[in-house]
Every structure is written in C-alpha cells, then in structure tokens.
Amino acid sequence: MSQRPEPAVRRPRKKRRTAAPVAAPARLAAPDPALRAPGHGWRTVAAKELADHVLSVRFLVLVVILGLAAAGAVYTAAGAIREVASSATGAPSLFLRLFTVAPDQFPPFVGLVGFLGPLLGIAFGFDGVNGERSEGTLPRLLAQPIHRDDVINGKFVAGLVAIGLIITAVTLVVAGIGVLQLGIVPPPGDIIRLLVWVVLAIAYVGFWLAFALLCSVVLRRAATSALVAIGIWIVLTLFAALLVGIIAGFLAPSPADATTDQQVANLSLQQDLARLSPNRLFEEATAAVLDPTVRTVGIVLPEQTDRAVGSLLPLEQSLLVIWPQIVILIAVTALAFALGYVSFMRQEVRA
Amino acid sequence: MAAADSAPAGPPEPAGDSVLTADNPLPPAEEPAPSAEIAIRTRGLTKRYGDFVAVDRLDLTVYQGEVFGLLGPNGAGKTTTILMLLGLSEPSGGAARVLGLDPARHPLPVKRQVGYLPDDVGFYGGMTGRQNLRYTARLNGLAAAEAEERMEALLLRVGLADAADSRVDTYSRGMRQRLGLADVLVKQPSIVILDEPTTAIDPRGVEDVLVLVRELAQDGVAVLLASHLLHQVQQVCNRIGIFVGGRMVAMGPMHELAEQLGSGPMTLEVSVEPPLAPAQELLSELPGVNRVEPDPRDSRLLVVTAERDLRGDVARALVGAGMPPLHLRRRGDELDEIYRRYFAAEEAADEPAA
To answer: Is the minimum CB–CB distance between A347 and chain B shorter than 8 Å?
Structure first.
C-alpha cells in the first residue's frame, strides 16, 4: 500500500492546504479506456454485489438449510436404494435415483430444490433496488459514470452466480455422499444428465431472482417486497394444485359418470393450468432429465402404453420431451427480468 | 489507463455534439465574455411532472473556479435541477450543457467529470469507509494503485483516516457527510455539486465543509452548492441564485442582491429603555418616516418604515431627546431578510393567479 504521509499533515482541518494532491482539476482528461470498455459498469456492480452475497449471513444460512435438507434426503434415498439393490441390479441410472427417489415421507433432493429454490432467488433479490433506495446509496451510485441498467444487470448476474454456487456446491456434496453410501461410480451419461439438471435448476431459481428483483423495483419497502415474493412462492408451490383442480372442475367438469373425453379434457386443462407455475415446469423438466425411462410428461392413456417397449431415451431425446418446458422456463425468467428492468429504467431516481 | 488519468489536463473534450449549432437551443453567450470557462449552462431548462412544474425555464451559468449558491426552500426544485444536470432525469424542455455536453444524451462523460453529493447521502453500512470509496473508484474506472493513493490522501483531507476501516454503520452523521465529500472527490471532478451539504451536521462540521468548498474553487473547480441555509453558505458563494417554486427569482453576487433590496422603502428596528410610547411619538414626526409601530412579535422593538435609510437621523433624534437607542438595525441587511422578502414577493405574485 501507499506509504502514509507524515503525522504532521494529519490535521486536515487547518486552512493551511494539506499535501493532498486531490482536486488539482484534471480538466477533461481523456475518458479512461476502462470506462469505454463494454461491460465495465455491470461487472463492477456484479463483483461488489457478489462479494456482499457470499459474505452475507443469508448466504451462510441458505447453504446450511439446503445442505442439511439435501443430505437428509440423499441419506434416506441411498438407504432405500440399497435395500432393493439386489432386485434392482441392472436398473438404469441407479446413481440418478439418489436424487429422485423418495422413501418414507422425506421429499427427494430434486423436490427440495423445487420447493426451497425459490427461497434462494427471493433471498438474493428482494432488496436489490429498494435496499439501495432506503440506504440512500442509489443516487450516489447512479451519479457514477455507469449506465443505469448496469445496476440492475449487475445485481441479476451477481444473484445468479451466488445461486449457481450454492446449487452446484450442494449437488456435489449430495453426489459425494451418495457415491460413498452406494459405492457406485456414476457413469458419464449420468454425470452429464446431472449437469444439465443443475443448469435447469439455476434457470428455475433465476426466475425467482428476477421476480424478486422486480418486486424490489416496484415496491418501495424491502419488507413488503419480501412478503409479496414469498406469498406468491407459497401460493404457487402449495396451493397451485388445489386452485387448478377447482378451476378445471368449473371450466371442464368431470362428474362421476364422465366420459373418457370429459375426463381427458378435465385433466389436460388441469395440466395446462398447472404449467403456468414455474414450479411445475421445473418438476416436469427434472423428471425427464434425471430419468431416461420417462418418455412423456403429459397424460398417458392405457391404450397408448399397450405393448409399448420400455427402453432408455438418450439425453437429447429426453431434452426433446421437455423442450417446451425449458423454453417457457427461460421465457418467464426473461419476462420477469424485463419487467423489472423496464420499470427500473423508467423510475425517477428520487422517489 | 492510469496514465491517461494523471496526464496533464487537456482542453474540454471536443466532442462533435458539444458544438452549438444553428438550431441548438443555447444561443451564444450574452454575458460579457467571462475570463473563466463555462462549466454549467442551462437555457429554459424545464421539468414538469404532469401539471406540476418543478423547474420553470431556468437560465443558469456557472463558471469554473466559482462557487454558486443555489438557494431556496425545500421543494423549490433544486434537486430536480441537479438530477437534470447529471442526466439522471430528462428535462421536459430547454437544454443543459455541462462542460459543453448535453447530460441527457451523454451522461457518462458528464458523470465522469461531475462529483455529486446527494442530499442525505447514504453508504453501504456493512462496508468500511475505505471499501465504500474503493467501490466508487472502481465504478470510475480508476486503476487500483492510483485509487488507493487518492483514497488515502482524501481520507486524510476530510479527517477520516482513523475511521477509514470501521464500518460505515458506526459513523456519525457528520462523518458520513465527510465521507461523502471524499467520495465526490475520488474521481477528481472539475465540477462539484453539493446538495444540502451542511444540513444536520454540527457547526464545526459546517465550517470544515465550507473551507473545503473554498479550496476546491481556488483549484479551479466549479462548485454548485444547493442549500436552504443561507447563513451557512453565504460566506463562500461568489454568486447566489434565489430559487423559489422552480423559478430563479434573483441572481447575482451577495452585495448586489442586498443593494436591490436597499433601494426603496426600508424598515428599521429600534429599541430604547421602556416606555416606548414617547420614542414612537418622536420618531413618527421625523421627516421621511412613514409609520412607526411596535413590533407585533417583540414588544421591546419599534418598527420604523421609512422612505430611505434614516438610521443617522433616528439615532440623533433619540439621543437628542434623552432616549439613547439600545438597538438600531436596518432590516434587509441580512440574507434572511432577502430570503423572506423574495419569498414574500413570490407568494404575493402567486396569489392573484390562484
């Protein structure tokens, strides 16, 4: 570091000018090349935000919560798999079952991520913009030579990176525990499927991050923003199935003596409605990516499976099955971010 | 990139768009060609929110090396004006040029050169003062080594060297304000805009701020000081603009503003040993005195309304009558009075319209 000036000049209050070389007015020195470099602004914001996230208490808490839940899920799953291991010899993708099998009442690892993932996104986004407002740092930040969207872009990227760190770390730990418990070496195909799933999970949590950021732009108080985001999370994950059943029963009734057509109409409406929730999209995508035997996520009638030959799908075929889900998941994430972006750009700095 | 920054200062960036063209709303300077360069200039700058006019056709010129005091009550549109100068708010009409650039269209080069201390400045409480400054330095694209050097010097200059590594959470209001000044100066601005820099800090802190402002101006920096506290800022301002209801109602050096008030009828306040009645009678007979009445707010005072400055006559008359004046003051000498007068005029002007 630079050498400290002598104690003699440590009284800057005196009218006598101090040695500070500041404010020799650098009259319009050519703008720094660094400032012209594209991405300078959002990178700087993202670096600072990421450091904040990683060092924050909420990061630690989330890692611990998710880590413990995941370890529990995998431990029980591994136990269950071992019990049936003799009969399951030759079963496909035993390694991936670690993440999807749910013995007893304990949810599987992917279920946990589907349920707790939104919490990650909300935690890193709900006070993104209104926090700066209430701390009074927003005008100062925007008065620096960066574009206005650098702020929200940087915050989104930093949140995504933090989420990616947590999900990847927890998944790796879980895989490690599973390998130790089961004593199997995962085949390369399974590892690739797991990696694809991690990317999907980050995209899914990214939606909730974008949504929480939107709340933080629109709502002035961080507490309100967190409450709204969490409320919608709970509604979509817990009550969505109930609501969907009621609405579908109203629009496409399926009485006790319903024909097959009526039943199918009711069920497909339920499914379409349920797919409005990113949670459902993620579940369907997970099912196909982590299980090569899954050939459809839609309604299957008995005559369709009659004499079907069970076989394993290659990864690209599995992806094809859930391609619409992937596209919609990314689209709603982009939409939520775009809404937040636009309202941030149109907002008055001082409000 | 650090080298470019510490290089000797060049002339203003000759960006093509800074040239005033025929249809540019900024006409050539009407003022007698000033020796100093123009730092900020606005012509007819207007900001409307729906029907509400926050800033109404503001014409303002600030020169390099000058301290300009933008004085007005809260809600006068000072902050709105500043945000437009920084390109953080789009003008509804008129134009602004900061260092020859239109801040609405070229905010980055403008913000590179303008240091802004917002009203009620905030910092990231979980970070230390030094970390907060470092973030600003990075946002300004400073090279690390140079940034550290500047930060060290600035922390010394604002007297925060010892607290630099404590969290900002633990800072007092005055310390935050000083950190804010260091934050503004990290980028070595050629224009500094301070919004209410002396509000809510103790008198000694105010003094520090004002000394620093003076030093900046001596170094050739243009300082725009927005405040509603006239007493505090009048001593450092070269020129003052009284800004009320979005309009600049008066502008000029302090003494000129006082002179404008000095012409015409004036008010004196007088106090003698009680009872006041004989003095009131005596003074009302003086030539040139229009009216003498007790001050409704202070029973010890008589308020004399006269056609011109009668202080000498009043004093002589009182002494001659054996009632030596204990207190004799011309109202309007003080900036407060200027302020009150302009605000009163403004309200009076508004009333018929309403």
So the answer is: no
Q: Are A21 and B153 in contact (CB under 8 A)?
A: yes
Does a structural domain hold residue A35?
A: no
Domain range holding B285?
A: 260-353
Is B102 in the same domain as B53? yes
Q: Which of A15, A22, A30 sits opposite B153 (nearest CB)?
A: A22
**Residue A89 pLDDT level (bands cut at 50, 70, 90):** low
**Segment A14-37 mean pLDDT:** 44
Omega before residue A92 within 30° of 0, cis: no
Q: Residues A122, A123, A125, CA angle at the centre, nearest 5°?
A: 65
Question: How far apart, in whole angstroms, are the C-alpha atoms of residue B132 and residue B158?
Answer: 15
Distance separating alpha carbons of residues A115 and B189, to the nearest angstrom: 50
Q: Is the ipTM of this complex over 0.90?
A: no
Range of the domain at A256: 40-299+311-346
What pLDDT, on a 0 to 100 scale, did the predictor assign at position B334? Answer: 55
Domain contains A289: yes
Could you count the other beta carbons within 10 Å of the beta carbon of residue B169?
11
For A315, other C-beta atoms within 10 Å of its C-beta total 14
Domain edge (last residue) among B228, B252, B276:
B252
- Measured between CA atoms, the residue of chain A closest to residue B122 is A136
**CATH number of the domain encompassing residue B113:** 3.40.50.300
